[in-house]
Amino acid sequence: MRDAVHTRALARIRGPLAVGACGVVAAGLLYGGQAQAVQPPQAGAAAKTQAGPEDAPLIDSGSAAGRKFRASGRLVGGGGTTCTATLVHAPGKPDPKAKALILSNGHCVSDTMGTDEVVADKPAGPDWTFTPAYFHDNPTEHKTFPVERVAYATMKGIDVSVLQLNATYGELAKADVTPRTLAAARPTPGTPLQAAHAPTDGVDPGRQFLRLSACAVTGSSVALHEHTWLWRDFTRTDCLGISGGSSGGPVTTTDGDRIVGMLNTVSTPGYLGCGLGRPCEGSASGLVIPKDNTVYATPVDAVASCLDATGLRLDRNGCRLDRGEQVEVASSGQQTRSETPKGPARWDAEITPRQGAHHAYVAFKTGPFGAVDCTDPRGYTRPRPLPAAGVGYTGLLPERDNLYVLCAVGGPDARMGGGAWAKSLAHPSYAYARVDNTPPTVAPQADIQHFGEGADATYWVRPVYLPWEITSYKVKYGPKSGTDCSAPEGYRPYLGIPASLKGSGAPWTYCAIGYDNADNATAPVAFTVG
C-alpha cells in the first residue's frame, strides 16, 4: 500500500487514536472518534445508501434488553475515542474483592497493532474509562470507572481486548452491574442474534447510548482481511444500525445470555474493492467482496478458554489465546502485479527470533488466505536454522490474483515434530501479499469548481479518489485544441494540489489516469473545463 494513500485515507476515517467508522463516511472498524477534514468519496459510481444508527432502536433500561445488557456500556480510550465494552467473568460468582475485567475489541486499545502483535499486562492510558448500564433513560445511574491495565489485546487472528478496571466486581455490583459469561461455541448460520452497542458516529450527542440490533448469522468461520489484519473464524451478520462506537458491542443469541461474539467491522458503502473500511473474505479462488453494510463479529470462545475464577490466565491449561511468543515477521504487506519492472513478484518477508522464545529453526508455507491452514504441519518446508540476525523469505508469489499468506513457525530443532513444534503451530506468525493484475473497475472522476464568470473565471480541478479501486492519479491539462489525453507525454503524478485554470484560456482539457495500489491503470479520461 502506498504510504501517502494510506495516510490520506486513514486521516479521513479515524479519530485521535482510532481506526474507526467515523467522519463523513463510516469506515470499517467500528471505533468512534473525531473525524479530520479530508476529501470524501464522491457521488456517482461509488455512492450507495448506508444504514444508519437509527436502524437500531435505543434500549430502555427497564426493558428485557436493558436487563440483559446492563453489564455493557461506553468505553472511552485515549483522545476521547469510543467503543462499547462489557463486564465479564468466568461462569460462577466472582470474588467481590477482585479487580473487574471488561471485554472489547483489540483495535479499541490501539489502531496501530501489527499483523502479529500481542499486548499483555500493560498499563492503560490515564484517561481511559468505562461506564456500564449506559442507557438513554437512566442518566442518574451512569457511573464511570477508570481502566487501569490492558490485561490482553491483539489483532492477530482475532480482534479482542480484555481490560482491567480500577474497581472491583463488588463495586460494580453496588451499581447493580454483574458480569456476563462467554460462550465456548460459535453461532451457526441462521441463528437469530441480538447485539447491544453504543454508536457515536452519525448520532446526535443526546442519543449516543446503548442500542439494540436484531439480526442473524449469515456466515460462520469466515476468514477476513482488512488493512493489515488477517482474522479467522469470524461471524458474518446482517445487523443494522452499526457505526463508529459500536466496536466491542456484545452479541448473543436471541434466546441466550452468553456472549457469542463482539461487533467488529462493517463493509462501508461508498468504498470499493478491498481495504481499510472494506473488509473482504478470503477463499481459494480470490477475495470475496461483501455487500454493503455487512457486519462481522469477533469470536470470543478463545477468551472464554482463558478465564477462570481468578481472572484472565494466559497460562491456564487449555487457554487458546496467543501469548505472542512466535517468530517476528517484517513484511510490507505489498499489493503488486505478478510481473514487476524487476521481474516476477516475490515475497519480501524478514523473519527473526522473538526475544526469549528460543526458536533456533523456522519453517514456512504459503497459500491463498482463507484456504491455507497455518496450524496444519502439512505443507511446511523443512525447518532451517534461524540466526539472531534473521532470515529472509523471497520466494515467488503466485501469478493468479488473490491474497496470499506466508505462514512462519519457529521451533527448537530441525525435526518438525514433538510437543514444542505443536505449541508453535498453535499460533504461527503471518505475512501477506496481494497479487492484483486487474485494472480498476471504475473510471476516473474529477471535482471541478469555478469562481467568477467568463474570462474572469477561475476553475479549480482535482481528481477524485475512489478507495480502494483508485488510490492515485497521473494528470495533465492544457488548451482543449492541443491536448490529447491518449498521448502518454506530459502526465505527472497528482500531488494533491488542484489545477487552477483561467477562464480566459477556456476551454481546457484535463486528463486523468487512475491507479490502484498495485499500479494497475485505468484508461485515460478527458474532462472539458470551461
Task: Give an overview in words.
By secondary structure, this protein is mainly beta. It is 7% helix and 35% strand. The longest helix is centred in the first third of the chain and has 11 residues, at 3-13. The two termini are 36 Å apart.
In short:
By secondary structure, this protein is mainly beta. 7% of the residues lie in helices and 35% in strands.
How is the topology of this model organized?
Elements: H1 3-13, H2 64-68, E1 72-76, E2 82-88, E3 99-104, E4 118-123, E5 129-132, E6 145-154, E7 160-168, H3 169-174, E8 192-197, E9 211-226, E10 229-237, E11 250-253, E12 259-266, E13 280-281, E14 295-299, H4 301-304, E15 307-308, E16 311-312, E17 328-330, E18 335-336, E19 339-340, E20 343-344, E21 349-352, E22 361-368, E23 384-385, E24 391-393, E25 402-411, H5 418-426, E26 429-435, E27 445-451, E28 458-464, E29 472-479, E30 492-493, E31 499-502, E32 508-515, E33 525-529
Parallel strand pairs: 18-26
Antiparallel strand pairs: 1-2, 1-5, 2-3, 3-7, 4-6, 5-6, 6-7, 8-9, 8-11, 9-10, 9-13, 10-14, 11-12, 12-14, 15-16, 17-21, 19-20, 21-24, 22-23, 22-25, 25-26, 27-28, 28-31, 29-30, 29-32, 32-33
